[in-house]
Structures are given as structure tokens and as C-alpha cells.
Design brief:
alpha/beta, Spore Coat Polysaccharide Biosynthesis Protein SpsA, Chain A, 8-stranded parallel β-sheet, 7-stranded mixed β-sheet, elongated
Length: 390
């Protein structure tokens, strides 16, 4: 019996969120790399409803990078929910299935899959989920887990409760036995029964893993939790990508330092303050200063005297002489003019409301100076602050 993996990517949006570069790699690369580290896992399915063409280049490159994996994209005909896609493509997933990893793409994590598998094989419940602890003030934004600490058995699960019940929350990483699909079918049958009993009611045919499957699994004492003590955060908004990128870059310093650009030596090129990822095709002037927590994409040009820190700079962008970019995401093929400044605010660790004041430039934006948030294909010739320029 085989162990397989599924990565849920959702969609659609104007730009495919799973391909947003975080830590120098597309968001979806990180869960895929984690699955590739499981020796007995050789088959991965990416499930979402983005156009096939948007995923083609990534999957082609991933197959070269992870040659032991068979990687397939299963495109939903519309949004089916976090469990609906699994049910819809069950004929592709079930053959010779022993255990199934299910990973959400929009989380930043070390993905402790080996530890998850070790726990799952000991208790042999239907499923094991990864749990992480968050501040009490923020717990109700997530799925909350009440469990028995001695056995790790989940006693109660509530998605986004109105009041605090636990600071241990659903981390969006799961391992299920094949019998999980019986639970999914039961959840689908329940929804269809309710729809038949109330033909005039609002039809809801989206199947949600969290509310429709995990809740009854927990009630039936068939679900367990592995508590991860490592880093974790959601990437629901674009601004979340900058602190998530910093987490991954710092993680790479311990797990995969070859991915990173080495700190600079005296007289040896630009000043690099680790951790930094620079694509091999990028051009950085020796007098520029980069880092910490920076990723520079393909064909990025950083001119003399420029300063970049805590930022994601996407492919084809030019940062001209003495320009400064920090706490920002700069989209593809932008131009930051001489002495221009693109400036956001750093994340406040004491802010429980998750207010991320990250500056975001979309595709093909030209900036003369100062802080701004703009939509695509604009030219800025005046200062802007705390506003969206249409």
C-alpha cells in the first residue's frame, strides 16, 4: 500500500497565489519539498481550480527538481471546498492507497511530516492533524482543538469559535488512513440528505474538510493531534508573505544553506546581511546592501548604492541608484527610480490584530520616490502615503 500526498491550492485569483515567491521559492514549493523528504512517498497530487496553463511551468520544473515524485495537477471544475476536491478526485487518489498526507499550500511551516507519520502509526486512528499553539487573543480566528494531552486524542474541534476554547489550533497539515474517504462520503451523504429534506433551502454543495469532516471525526474519537513547536503562520494576505519569507529564509540557514547567498566578505561584492536569497540570474552592484530577510527573483537588477531589506523583489524588477526598498513586496518588471523609496512598516510582534503595513507594488509599476501602494501599469511622479493610487 502506498503513501501519497495532496497539496490543496484553492483558486482562482488574478495571479496564482501558490506561485508567489516566498523565501526565494514559490509558496507551493515548500510543502512539495517536505513531501519529497518522505522516503516511501512517490506520488503527489496538486488540487485546485486555477487554469492548467498557470501550473504547467511549475510542475514541469518540480518534476526535474524532485525526480522521485510523480506530480499531477487535478483541476476542479469550480471551487469544491477543502474536502470536495478530495471526494471528486477519489478515483485518482484511492488506488493502492495506504496513507494520505493532505497539506494546505497557504501556510508557512517546517512541515514535520515524519513526526506526524510516527505518531499516526502508533495510534492508528483515521487521521492525525498538526496542531500549533497561538496567543489566546488570536485563537478564535482558526479551528480550535480540545484534546487529551496524555493520548493526543482530539476530543472536540470547532472551526473559528465565537469564544475562546483552546489556544491549540489546526495547522492545516494532515495524515489520513484510506478509511478517511469513508468519512468524506458520509459527510457528503449528510449534506445531500439535508438538501433533499429542504428543497427550498439554500443549496450548499461545497464540502469543507474542517467543518464537515474533522468535526464528526473528533466527535467519534477518530482524530489525533501532533503538536508542533516549530514555526508556523498562515499566508492568507499578500502582506503575510514578507514575514513568512523571513521565517523560511531563517529556516534554510539550518536546513538548506546552499539555497542562500553567503554573507559578504570584505571587498567581495555587495554587502549581504543574512539570510538572503538571490537568484543566480540577478545582478547586484558591489556597492549595494541587501538583507536581512530578502529574496531577489530572476533577472532583478540592483544598482549602485541601493538598499533592500525585509522584502520580496519579483522577477525582472530594477532598483535604481541609491533607491531603498524595505518591508515591501515589489511585483514583476517594476522600476524603482534613483533615490526612490518604497517603504512599509515592520511586523509588530505585540499586535494581536494582525495589522501588516506592508507596501505592495503590483506588476510593471514605475516609482519615482516615497511610499506607495499601486495597481498595475502606473507611473508615479509624486510622493504618496497611506493610499491606494488608482
Amino acid at each position: 500500500m502506498a503513501t501519497k500526498g495532496v497539496i490543496l491550492i484553492g483558486g482562482p485569483s488574478k495571479a496564482p497565489k501558490p506561485l508567489l515567491p516566498i523565501g526565494g521559492k514559490p509558496m507551493i514549493w515548500h510543502p512539495l519539498a517536505a513531501l519529497a523528504r518522505i522516503p516511501e512517498l512517490t506520488e503527489v497530487f496538486i488540487v485546485g481550480f486555477y487554469e492548467d496553463a498557470l501550473m504547467t511551468d511549475f510542475i514541469r520544473g518540480a518534476k526535474r527538481e524532485f525526480p522521485k515524485l510523480s506530480i499531477s495537477y487535478l483541476r476542479e471544475y469550480r471551487s469544491l471546498g477543502t474536502a470536495g476536491g478530495l471526494y471528486h478526485f477519489r478515483d485518482s487518489l484511492l488506488p493502492n492507497l495506504g496513507m494520505l498526507f493532505v497539506l494546505n499550500a497557504d501556510i508557512c511551516s517546517s512541515f514535520p511530516l515524519a513526526e506526524l507519520m510516527d505518531m499516526h502509526q502508533k495510534h492508528r486512528g483515521v487521521g492525525t492533524m498538526m496542531g500549533v499553539t497561538v496567543p489566546k487573543e488570536t485563537a478564535t480566528r482558526y479551528g480550535c482543538i480540545v484534546h487529551d494531552p496524555a493520548s493526543a486524542q482530539v476530543l472536540h474541534y470547532v472551526e473559528k469559535p465565537e469564544k475562546w476554547i483552546s489556544s491549540l489550533i489546526n495547522g492545516g497539515v494532515y495524515l489520513f488512513d484510506k478509511s478517511f474517504f469513508d468519512e468524506v462520503k458520509a459527510a457528503m451523504d449528510t449534506k445531500e440528505k439535508h438538501a433533499a429534506e429542504d428543497p427550498f433551502g439554500e443549496r450548499d454543495d461545497i464540502l469543507r474538510l474542517e467543518q464537515d469532516v474533522l468535526v464528526p471525526l473528533a466527535a467519534g474519537r477518530k482524530l489525533f493531534v501532533y503538536e508542533s513547536k516549530d514555526f508556523w503562520r498562515q499566508i492568507k494576505r499578500a502582506g503575510s508573505a514578507v514575514p513568512a519569507s523571513a521565517l523560511y529564509l531563517n529556516h534554510f540557514t539550518k536546513t538548506n544553506p546552499k539555497l542562500l547567498t553567503a554573507p559578504s566578505k570584505e571587498g567581495g561584492g555587495p554587502t549581504i546581511i543574512a539570510p538572503v536569497y538571490i537568484d543566480p540570474s540577478a545582478e547586484v552592484d558591489p556597492s549595494a546592501k541587501i538583507g536581512p530577510n530578502v529574496s531577489l527573483g530572476a533577472n532583478v537588477v540592483v544598482a549602485p548604492g541601493a538598499r533592500v531589506r525585509d522584502a520580496i523583489i519579483m522577477e525582472g524588477t530594477t532598483i535604481d541608484k541609491h533607491a531603498c526598498v524595505q518591508n515591501s513586496i515589489v511585483g514583476k518588471h517594476c522600476k524603482i527610480g534613483p533615490w526612490g523609496r518604497v517603504d512599509g512598516a515592520p511586523e509588530d510582534p505585540m499586535d494581536t490584530k494582525n495589522n501588516l503595513n506592508i507596501t505592495i507594488l503590483a506588476t510593471e509599476v514605475t516609482v519615482a520616490k516615497e511610499t506607495c501602494i499601486v495597481l498595475p501599469n502606473k507611473t508615479l511622479n509624486r510622493s504618496a502615503h497611506d493610499q491606494v493610487l488608482l
